[in-house]
Amino acid sequence: MITQMSVVNITGPRDDIDRMSDQYLSQYDFHPINTLKELSGIETLRPYTSANPYEKYEARIDELLHLTDVHEDQELHVQHRISFAAVKDLVETVESDLSEERQSLQEINEKYDEAKKRYALYEPFSGIDYRLDEILNMQMIKFRFGRFTTDNYRKFIKYIDDNVPSIFVKSKEEDGYVYGVYFTPVDARQRVDALYYSLAWERIYLPEAEGQLEAIVQDAKDHLADTAKKKSAIESHMRSLILPIASELINAKARLQQLSHAWGLRKYAAITRDEFAQKETRYLIIGWMATNDALSLAKDVENDDDVTIIIEDDKDNQQLKPPTKLRNNFFVRPFEMITNMYGTPNYNEWDPTGLVAITYSILFGAMFGDLGHGILLTAVGLLGYFLPKVRMAKMFVPVGICSMIFGTLYGSFFGFEDLIPTLWVKPAEAMTTVPFFGTLNTVFVVSVAFGMFLILATMLINVWERLKNGETLEAIFDKNGVMGFVFYGLLVFIMVLYMSGHAIPAAGLLGAIVVISLLLVAFKEPIVKHIEHQEKTGEEDGLVMSLVTIFFETFETLLTYFSNTISFVRVGAFAISHGIMMSVVLMFAGAESGNMNWLVLVLGNLFVVGFEGLVVFIQVLRLEFYELFSHFFKGDGIAFKSIWSD
After folding, report:
1. DSSP for 386-426, written as a single string
2. Residue 270 in contact with residue 45, Cβ under 8 Å?
3. What are the residues facing 185 on neighbouring strands?
4. What sign results for the dihedral spanned by CA atoms 27, 33, 34, 40?
5. Average pLDDT of the segment spanning 170-177
6. What is the model's pTM?
């Protein structure tokens, strides 16, 4: 079902918008409209330009909570609503109480970062067995600490090392680099540097220090560990102080996010400007709400002098296209996904989700009829009601139930066809003699008959939709309108009588009606133009070209009726193939020999449920989109998006 919508205009003092949004509007789904864009002709309107005041306090809370992990991977919920002033007071009080510890932590963090940086510089050169201070004090020999990539180091050894006046001392190889230092005489420095840099040598400058490089690295490592220990001690002390109030901070953060979300309404709002007073005075926000929600909101604010709300009926805003908000029961709601895959119903058309829920479940069950597999699908679907992350699986419940029903009718249980009685037919064995066509599979015949019924039903829906929207001529002359229904319906009626062995009453009259209805569909465009007294334009085709166009469009219409009907043969085809696939699984599992391989049986059933279930899912989807939706559903609507669900 499509929810009735109303346009809501809300206004009040400029600086009161956040309070209104948080206290009242946040309790309802609201689809905002860009007020400035919608009222672009009014020059006295201005946008909000102020910064979000809540973000910096949220960052400060994050800084405090960073020392704990109580909020990690936790969905935040407001346990109790507190004012922004209370949040600020809480944050500032906690920061004040921890001022000494925070200062100590800042100082130790700076020392830790410096120690970490120093260790990272020295560590790659720990393999060089020289005193660093002696290297740094060399006068006649130049040195360069640095690194090659591993590939460039190989090139250096192969092409350059033996041909330049330098000595390269390798330290270690790690992370795709070779670290080391090279020495060269002062007078050869420029030539040697150029050769090294040609292989992307990356120079690294080491701070001054005394002693062997290995010892320097060890000292840097010890200093880093000692600094980390002091840092950890301060953090542990701060954690012990923060943990008792962590829940309050988390609630404050959740509340700030809530307030920040309410503040986001400003980007859709406009401010009215008083040109005489030269200041902005009031805010104005426009949006769509469910009519019941709008009335409830109006009741909430009726005693609030700072909030004025005007509710307009959807028919009073012809220039605004209402968004579509679907409202379906728990059985139908999971199938909204399929409807939205095709398109969002526009506000003035019928929501086909209920039809999808019924037809999709029946068609899937007929194609995937197995009692055992239906139980598995139903079990997976039930998980969707308990696990939010797999709530899309809810549609497997009605689909699985239909598979169980058809599995019972087919007498199939996990592929075994002798464990339960067959209440109707076995798809691969049941045959029916049809006049003119001969012997056909019974499931094929029933599938096509059910398909013809669905096509006729969707034509009636199209007629009803057109009439409801005032498109009377389209409802009558369209190929999916009254004339199309008469043409296709009479053909189905005649075919059913013929195949069932009954005489066709008034065959000539029925034939004439069939021909006339087809001609009315074919000549719909000129008939409609004549009835509506549309004037001819110079761009219209001539008589011959018009007749040729009508001929091919009529041929396409007939082909569409035929292909739509024949497409339902796939229902029977998959019902048969499902049984055949399971017979193959049973054969590999050794069911016929009596020596059952249960592992093969289980894996085979899981494969069929997964692989064939996916294929059937797609095939039924195709039937819904091309054979049903194409007859009546436009799907050109705007989806309702609540600002609070962003």
Report:
1. T-GGGGGGGGHHHHHHHHHHHHHHHT-BTTBSSSS--SS--
2. yes
3. 141
4. negative
5. 92
6. 0.74
